[in-house]
Amino acid sequence: MKKSTTGIKANSKFAFILFVFMVVFVIFLGRIAYLKVVHGEEYEAAAKNQQINRYDTVIAANRGSILDRNEQVLAISTAVYNVVLDSLVLAENKESEQEKTLTTLCQYFPELDYATLKSYITENPATGKINLPNHWKYLVKDVDRNLKEELEALELKGVYYEQISKRSYPLNTLGSHLLGFIRGGTEWGIEGQYNDYMVGTPGRSFILYDGASGVSYQDYPAQDGDTVITTIDYTIQQYAEEVVTDTAQQWPSESVAAIVMDPNTGEVLALAESNSFDLNEPGTPAEIKTNPDFKTDWEAKSNEEQMEYLNNMWKTFSINSTYEPGSIYKPLVVAAALEEGLITPEMTFYCSGSMDVSGTRIGCHLKSGHGNINAEEILAQSCNMGVIHIAQKLGAEKLYRYQMEFGFGQKTGIDLPGEVDAANLIHSLSAIGPTELATISFGQTFNCTTIQIITAFSALINGGDIVTPHVVSQVIDQKGDVVFENKPQVVRQVISRKTSDYLRVALKATVERGTGKKIKIPGYSIGCKTGTAEQGSRERNDLWTLTHMAYFPAENPKYIVLTVIHLPKEYKDGVQSTAPMTKALIEKIIKYKNLEPTEATEEVSALTTKETVELPDYVGSSTYHVVTDLDTKALNYKVVGTGNTITNQVPKGGTKVETGSEIILYVEKSTEDSGTISVPNVVGKTYNDATTILTDAGFEVVFEGDTDGVVSKQDPKYGVSVEEGGEVKIKLTPKEKETAGSTQSG
User: I need a surface site. Which of 168, 700, 720, 732 has the fewest CB within 10 A?
Assistant: First the structure.
């Protein structure tokens, strides 16, 4: 029988198709095997990264703190959180969960709009996708830890908390030019100089795969930066800023400054300058908040003009600006001549009131002249003619050499950015003729910085050593190990101890009977040199810099103080003076350090009899007990924050403070404080004002006394956090009545 060719053809076609399919399938399996074996790990990692990247966030490291020499906090970083909504995740949940999340967010953050939040998870009918292209939406920034934990407990869907670090300066303007800040590419002060130590290492939070299919979240914590311990004494810094502020208000000037330093070690204990600013808002001049006219002018400035103003405000005058030092330079010339054996303490020089130097008439401030005068009296009376005679004995070469040895025209090496050397503002040796020799001797026709002259002057009284000034003593890591240390560094010895010993005592005469008499403090031995230097064009005769260089105790100096009034407006000879600020600052340091008088006198009681108290360490304590304790110690207080747990205090525990001083308490909420609010201060308020303040804050008011009186007592005390709706008791006492020609005190 004949076979059908049609069936054979059909079977052959099917077999061919099956063969092709099998070949393709084998190739496909081979490709999969190839990719798995050769590129499997690479592709798997890429797939995981796509998932990781959805929730991959950086955990900011807290920047290292800056402390004063007594470990008082000057700058600190704390963890705060950005509240983030993932609209895709929220949209995947039930409507009830969505509603809970959105309404809760709006309750906690009134600035959020419900309709706007709702739109983030509303589907577009045309695409079937939610309206927000970027599902990772930042809602609120800088939320503190307590509030973040409170929200976390509510288990809101699609809400995440991104940890960031917030830099804060608890003392606002204190040490603003010293501490500085980092703004974009600009670095100022200690923040800029020691940035690499303080910056820390960020952490990360992302998804990890567990085995073949499990997914888990993994956090790698950030490593906080190192702590910088400065040489600054918070209390002395505060005193220096007080005298600078008072002086700048009394005599408006381009700059007013004060430095306090240990002349033996180069440790800067305080550096205060006018034109200070709030470190928490460095881009906002202080006058904007206090002077409407300034605010108007500021808003009219261009961006370039505003930035120029801010740069001038931010710069540290004491290391970034120069001026002619004037008569505070004279002791260096006397020291050089003594060291070279060209003069003796007993040698006298004649001052007639003026002299002709190569055709230039140079005068002394005492036009009638000082007559015959020795080295001690030349310095005490600040005699120009006497120091010119001494410079002429030195000659240009030796004068120039000692100027270089004392560090002029060179950076001191202070650990702050932006120090200038003023090298182009001093005479070269070849340029020092007879006239220049004379003018240099009394500190004119060359420039220096404040830090240069106080460093050079320190060598006159510390035994003859140029010591590198510094503002940071140590950097400590998170384990407590010292990773950097600034030990006192002697650069060179410029004069002998014998010369230094003579000058240290000789300069007492300036205070006892010379130009520095106004800073005399009975019972205390102080050495001093005053300075009044003309600046810029001599034709104007209205550009001056006034200085006082003082040190104490004179026989064994622990403190050297330089005060500067640079370019006072409407200058009048004999009117503006640095003497009041110098004396006030020294008196404050004597009280603070409880320095014993060095000389017998009956007039010292005013500095030593004021009562002081040693401040306990309140950190970790409850405000309930602390504010009562402060009252019993006759100390005032200010509470910063909300809660009853004290996390920091200024000044720190162990510090001696005068009765009546204000103590700053920084507080946070503990778990027990949830739902509490801080009680306002109504002491001294009228009944109506006190009632309004307390009821507006959510408290019930119970009072005792006459409603026509004022609040003399409240319970709970101001600053304590209690439950909203709680009771605050106030005691009212009659207002004090004024009678003509007399006052009454309580």
Answer: 700
